[in-house]
Design brief:
This protein is of the alpha+beta class. It is built from two helices and five strands. The protein is flat and about 65 Å long.
């Protein structure tokens, strides 16, 4: 059962990685964008340091504006952080899809980029290893 769950995590992680690679291939044209604000979302989490009580955590994602030709676009990163990584007026480089300028990729330094696929792959590998080793004990 643990091996099967590990395989699922591994497959999901690989699928996420492939999706990210394909998006980066499509979004290949760099453009300077200006941070115009922050998107906020609040989530309730268990505070491990405070006996597991529920706490509200605010996460932030930069909202940027960029110009392609004569048209101005506005978007935000899909990656959120518990602290504000950028301030209004900051300039960042993002990459857009020349066939669809609304599709963009944020780089790690611009307030984006996610490693979730590596977390899923790592979890899958560990679960598979546990599933193989446990019966031997």
């Amino acid at each position: 059962m643990v091996i099967a769950a590990g395989v699922v995590f591994l497959l999901v992680g690989v699928a996420m990685m492939i999706r990210n690679i394909k998006k980066k291939e499509r979004c290949s044209v760099p453009v300077e964008a200006t941070v115009i604000g922050m998107t906020e979302k609040q989530e309730i989490e268990k505070d491990e340091l405070d006996e597991g009580r529920n706490v509200t955590v605010t996460r932030y994602s930069p909202v940027v504006e960029y110009v392609i030709g004569s048209k101005t676009y506005k978007t935000h990163s899909s990656t959120y952080s518990t602290y504000k990584t950028k301030s209004p007026g900051d300039r960042v480089t993002i990459y857009y899809n020349p066939e669809d300028p609304t599709e963009v990729v944020f780089t790690a330094g611009s307030g984006g980029s996610s490693s979730m696929h590596w977390i899923a792959i790592g979890t899958g590998v560990v679960m598979i290893a546990i599933g193989i080793v446990m019966p031997m004990m």
